[in-house]
Every structure is written in C-alpha cells, then in structure tokens.
C-alpha cells in the first residue's frame, strides 16, 4: 500500500513555514535540507521538519495540505 505524507517545515522557531505533500518523506526532506531543487524552501532556508501525517489516500493528503495552508499562522505555530 502506498503512503503519502503531509509535512511542515520551518526555518527556525516562529520562522517561515512550508507545508507540502510527498510519497517519500525521507527523500523530500533531504532534498529540502540540501537545496537540491530550487524552491521556496531554498530561498527562505526552510529546512527543519517539525510535523508530518501519514495517509494511504492521495486525495486525503492533498485536501489536508490545503486545509493546513488555510490555517492562521498563529494556529500553525501553536500546533
């Protein structure tokens, strides 16, 4: 069964937040940490994994990502 991960990265405590979805969390975090793909996380040094969830349904993962992105910043920091 395939697994999908909704994850949150941050640059530092109370810093910039990034939310994403992947099917390979270890590989994706490695890519972020080592700036292997030019992206938002490279520009803002968002490299620290602070949270993730696992699901077997890609649609559920994408929906959860969208919901988390709509949360107010304060809620994300407190979560």
Q: Provide the spatial order of strands within the biggest beta sheet.
A: 2-1-3
Count of discrete domains = 1
Spans of at least 5 consecutive residues whose pLDDT stays below 50 are: none
Query: Helix coverage percent of residues?
Result: 40-55%
- Overall geometry comes to globular
Query: CATH topology, what is it called?
Result: GIY-YIG endonuclease
Mean pLDDT: 91
The tally of beta strands, per DSSP, is 3
- Strand fraction: 25-35%
List the helices and strands and how they pair.
Elements: E1 4-10, E2 17-22, H1 25-33, H2 40-43, E3 48-55, H3 58-70, H4 73-78
What does this structure look like?
- By secondary structure, the protein is of the alpha+beta class.
- It has a single domain, classed as GIY-YIG endonuclease, CATH 3.40.1440.
- Helices cover about 40% and strands about 25% of the residues.
- The chain has helices at about 25-35, 40-45, 60-70, 75-79, and strands at about 5-10, 15-20, 50-55.
- Strands 2-1-3 form a three-stranded antiparallel β-sheet.
- It is globular and about 35 Å long.
